[in-house]
Prior knowledge:
It is a single chain. By secondary structure, the protein is mainly α. It has one domain (about 1-310). The protein contains twelve helices and no strands. Helix 5 (about 120-150) packs antiparallel against helix 6. The two termini are about 15 Å apart. The model has no long low-confidence stretch (mean pLDDT about 80).
Amino acid sequence: MHQMAKKWLSRIAGIALSCALFWYMYAKVSEQLSKSGGEFWHHTGPVFYLWVAGGLMLVNIGLESYKWRFLLNKVDDCSYRLALTSYLAGLAISTLTPGSIGDYPGRVVFLQKGNWQRYAHVAITGALAHLMVVYLFGLCSLAAFLAMTGTKSWFILILAALFCGGIYLLFVNIERILEWCRRFQFVSGFIEKAGLIRQISGMDRWVVVFISAVRFMVYASQLIMIMYWMDVNIALPVMICLVILFYWAMTAVPTMALGELGVRGGVALYLFGLYSQNSIGIAASTMVIWLLNIIFPAIVGACLIAVRRMGR
């Protein structure tokens, strides 16, 4: 009787979570569409750019799922299908958390493989690889942007370089740091139970960085395609620099995924507005990329959560 009640409570909790995700996403999307009034659809260019951006969405999902499976296989055998579904579920959970910090915990919980601590190291490795790639690309673009605008803001550049270097040192020395942390009793038990030491080799870590870099370039290409579709006509070298700076800024500013659209629009209008007067196209581009890379996959993830809970 107790097990049956626990099973039904689990189902109800899963359904309630999925309903909350659906409602929150619907409310946010409806709010943004009502503000735009559909006016931006009259400012679009060749639809080819939109089709390419949509295709790159699938490439983006495929790359992240492959990276997640690559990491999971360092702990336990995992199929690509399970890695894909857990990634989408984690994305759905991350829409309700600041800075998308619920992404990797959501993935691990969806796996339901017991002893979730075993996956802590690979999750940290994946997150740090992504951060390192974004900040490295951002640092290079910031240097190019300052050179293009003739701005001599050495303080910002040095601060960004120090932060990027800090992430790099943390990434390559994570096992040494964990080994040092074992001297503290309140974390040593967790480290031992999770088996966090020596799960991932140095070469494997750089494979994860490479996949993260390719995925970031796909992300950047998506936004470039959408900007051109919305007739935001900026020279390609400058556009690439601005897109990378945009993603770098969005990573540095911790916001909830479902509440960040206003921040996205503000940052985009500031950066791209320096080279284009098409404010409607710039703001609309941020909404389209938000729908493609967050909302649509998150809706699928919420459905997967509901299905998983109903089937238990």
